[in-house]
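HUMAN: Mind making up another protein with tokenized structure?

ASSISTANT:
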Amino acid sequence: MRTHRWIWNIVLLALIIVIVPQCTRKIVAKDETVPTAEQQQATAREREQRTFEESLTAKKYPGIEGTVMESAMLKDVNFAFDRYDLTAEARNILAENAKLMLANPSLRLQIEGHCDERGSNEYNLALGEKRAMSAKLYLVKLGVKTENLSTISYGEEMPLDPQHNEEAWAKNRRAHFVILSK
């Protein structure tokens, strides 16, 4: 009986030695303040602005004095053969472009209408203008100021892909966005 008591005392002492130091440890919480929703939004806007600024590349364009800018964040809109109506995909791309413009209200864009090489020069210039205007009108509908947008048609004169096949022609039927000033 005495040995049992002795063993229990040792076990109890061991438990006390292990448990008591754990209880006396202080948990020090770091003084971290959680940013408010407004601060998180401001940080996200700053990050987007930095990304946009980093995406800008200067270019020299025919018919435009000085240097213009292009951004990979402004996506081209493609069109079907002999069409200038906006597909669902085109409207989604324009919505993203509109978000970028609304976040940068001083941006002035030129929307270029392009065509593939099929058709006469006159016809393609008219079709390119209709494509540029379709994009412009949709951006205005989304809240972009009309005075920040201009249009031009290059028809078939500035192909993105100079090859003579359906894949190249599909790339060339587009509305392209150039930043005139920011």
